[in-house]
Each structure stands twice: as structure tokens, then as C-alpha cells.
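Wed. Picked up where I left off yesterday with N(6)-L-threonylcarbamoyladenine synthase. The coffee machine is broken again, so keeping this brief.
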Amino acid sequence: MQNTRFLVRSAQSQLQAARPLTRTFVSSRPRWATSTGPAMDQYNKRSDAQKPQSEHPKNDDSLPNFVEGKVGQHEESRGEGSRAGFGSGGKSHATGESIVPEAVQKVAPEKLEKALPEAVHPTKGSEIDPHPQQNIRTLPSRCWHAASTSPRRRNLLTLAIETSCDDTCVSILSTTNRHNGVWADLLFNEKVTAKNTGKGGILPTESLESHQSNLSTLLESALPYLPNVSDTVGPRTVWLGDGSPVQKPDFISVTRGPGMSASLGVGLATAKGLATAWQIPMVGVHHMQAHALTPRLVSAMGKDGHDHHGHSPNFPFLTLLVSGGHTMLLHSKGLVDHEILATTTDTAIGDELDKCGRLILPKELQADTPDTAFGKYLSAYAFRTPRDFASWRVPATRAEEIDKPVNEFGWGLSTPMAQNRELAFSFSGIASQVKRLILARGIAGGMTEMERLLLARSALGAAFEHLGSRTMIALENLRAEGIQIDHLVVSGGVAANTFLRYYLRELLDRRSFGRTQLVFPPVEFCTDNAAMIAWAGSEMFEAGYSTELGCAPVRKWSMDSHQPGGGILGIEGWIRTGTQ
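Structure written out below (C-alpha cells, as returned):
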């Protein structure tokens, strides 16, 4: 038990070492009881003639009545009410006809979530079309379900939902265009993780039930963080259950894929219901695109250690996405222009490290870990403090990668694909080597604690050496083509690993890429979160993209815009606004 507490504390200390001094997490509020409030009563008593003309559905391109604020600025209690109202009467701004599904029209706003299963159903996943431009429906700039994006809106507000795997996430993000760049304020950002501990990994059914149980609760907690509005009631106002008027989001951002279809369907169906009820657009976000853009969110929030705000790093840059479900190296040339340079041919690096963790970590330690991210605890077990990183030799040349001597115990783990320069990842062989060694040691009488510690370091080293080797080959190829890469963005859950951060920096410096800046998001933005979905949705919305409400979740969705399928824009359901 004492070793378990040390292991968990060690993991927490390594995570803390990578955290910024300022946090962006907003604490939750108490649950509310349903009420009406005097402001709502007074509003409902007015006749149509007394209501401002702005309340009637129409096409409105005016700037939002936005209240700027930093994280934690909206801490004052708004009472104990809790449901969002309707701001636009449920009618199309273009035709005046009702577009709200009949099931939603028949219920009061406070019963909206009960009607969502009747009004919105997840549909069958669509196949990727090899002609992406045929999948984008173009609309004029003045259209109800895609707000004007040209010229750029000064202020934008979005509510975001992320349910691609086992984390249920909700956030509220506001962005402001100023003379010195884009500023972002994260008003709300929370998540709940499914209880998969002790079940050998992530179970789709457990994750689905967690989304169904927790998403509405998170949304209830989030609504009071929408900015307050003035006494002037208009189509951009929604009412909480206590009668408090708050600003309606400009659009809903939601993860559309890739991910587990059933989990994606929960978030997407809820987002469709909110977009329909509030009569606002929806942006279906590519999950991995959101990871790639996360450093630009951090920059806009001023959390990157610089005084300026804006989109940083600027395109183009190299993106290394490393998580439990994905491993890919991208040349990111623009918002929707990404070229995959290397991707995994078998398992993702995060999944492989979790497998190694289950094989190497003592069983008593595994039993007391609070989650199934065994790769994280494997790193804490192997390197008790960051000072231990220097004990691992970072290869200065390709020859050192290939020629790996055996250790004092008579074995060594080989780096995958060390003998070739193919741009691809393959991690499955690492866990296979670990398993064979542990079985052999079991027959021979067991493994000492020192040998187990070295095995943990070797498994991590082999995985990161392979990751770094392919990244160096890509950088060398681009340099030979005359392409200078100034930034290497590393994002995804494995990017939180402090040993990986140390290893890549050492490798770049030793291989004559010392001028290439490594960009890692803060630890809380490496794993799945809705803040990155909100930011990616905001960038897509500013570029003129929204998503049809009849869209389906997409289990597999390539980011490569240079391959058949068309990348991010290669699926059905996109709407392009502002052009004809």
C-alpha cells in the first residue's frame, strides 16, 4: 500500500511539473431546483405589442451583446433556477416557418431533455466520399443556420460537447477579435470519466452509460456560466429557470468523430437538440483536429507564457498526435489542410504503453490505481523524479538507434523498424517482447525489483525512440525539400508524459534541429476535453463552416486532405457560409 501511494504521488508530481501556474478549470456549482423568478414572470406577462421588435425571428447579423470576463469572473450565484429557455420562437429566420421538431414544439422548455430522444435520433454513419467538395452544401451569407462569418465577428460564444471515448466533457468558450489578435476566455470546462477501473481497459458499454448519466448534469452546471446580458431582451437572450437572462451561444460545437459510434451519438444528439431549440448553428468537430489546434487555444488564452494573444503557432507546422487511440505525424498546412506523413500500422502508442504497464507493474500497484491509464503509472514507476530521465541514453545518431547493447541482465528491447527509414509507426512488438521476457523470467524463478524497473524504462524508451526516429526522418525529408519546420506540436493524452517531453527535446538538439520549437499544451489540455472542441469549432465557424443537423457520427475519419476521402471536409454534412 505504501508503494501504491508513492506511485500515485509520483505520477501526480510529474504531471504537476508540466502544469502552468494558472489553471483554467472552473469549479462546479450546486445543483439547482426548478423555479421561475420575478424577471421571467414579468417577461411572460407582456403582450406581443409590448415586446421589442428584436424578439421576433429575423435575420440578425448584429454583434452579440457580449460580456467579457476571465475564468472565475462569473462566480456570483444566480439563485437556484436551472433550465434554459427559448430565444427565437423556434422559427426559421429565413422563412418564418417552424423548424423545431414536433416533439420539441409540444413541450415546455424545462422539459426539453425529455423530448430529445423523440426529436433527435443518431443516424447511420456515412462513408467517406472521394470528392470532398461535393459533400459541402454552400449557402448565402444571410442564412438562419449559419451566422455571417464575413467580415469576422468581433465576439463569438460557443458551448461545446465531447463524448468520443470515455470522458464526458462540456465547456463554454468566448473569443474576441482585437487589434492585437484573438483573445479567448474559458468560462466553463469540466468532465466526468467513466468508471472503467479494474475492467482491463475502456468498455464501450460502460462509457455509453456514463455519457447518458452525466452529460445532462454537466450541461446544467454549465448554463449559469453563460455571460449575463442587460435588461434588453432580444433574440440573443435565453432565460434560466430562476429568471436570469443570459447570452445564447452563437453556435454549438460537438465532436462528430472519430471515436466510438455509440458514445459520439450521445453528444451529437444532445448538440442537435440544443441547436434546434436555440435556433443556432452546430459545428461537428474532428476530434484529432481539435488536439492539433489546442496550442492555438492556449496561445489565445495567454497561457503559453507570452504576453501576446492570437493564433500561435501559425501554419504550417508539424503535428505529432499521440493518444490511446491514435498515433500520427502530420504536416499541418492550414485549418483543414493536413497531410499524414506517418501513422500506426497496428496499435496506438498509448494503448501499447497501457499494455506494457499491465505486464510490468506489480499487481498490488495496479489494483489501487484510480484509472486504467497504466502507461502513465508505468512512467511514474520507471522514473520516480525528472532527474532520473538523464539515466536513459538518447541516441545522437541513427547508428546508435540500430546498435543497442544488452544490459547487465543480458537482454535489451529492440526499437521497432530501426533497420529502415519507412515513415510509419508500429508499436505492437514492444509489448510482445516484454511479455516473452516476463514469461521467461517466471520460469527461471522471477524478476528482481531492479530488473523490473529497468524493463519499465526500456519499454518506454523503445516506444519513444521509435516515435522520435520517424519524426526525425520526416524532418530530414522536409529539410531536403527546402521546407523549414519551426514548430513541432505534440498533443493527445500521451503528450502529458514528462519523459516524452524530455526525450524529444534532447533528440531534436542532438540531431541538429535545435531551432525547432517543441509545443506541448498544458497537461489538462492533453487528454480529452471540451475546451479544445470549442476552440476547433470556433476556428471552423470563423472560416465559414457549420454542420447539417441531419449529420451522423463518424467512427473513422481521416485528416489527410491529400488522400482519397478528402480529409476533414471529405464527409457529408458540411455547410459553407458566406460564399455563393
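Quick read: The chain has 15 helices and 15 strands.
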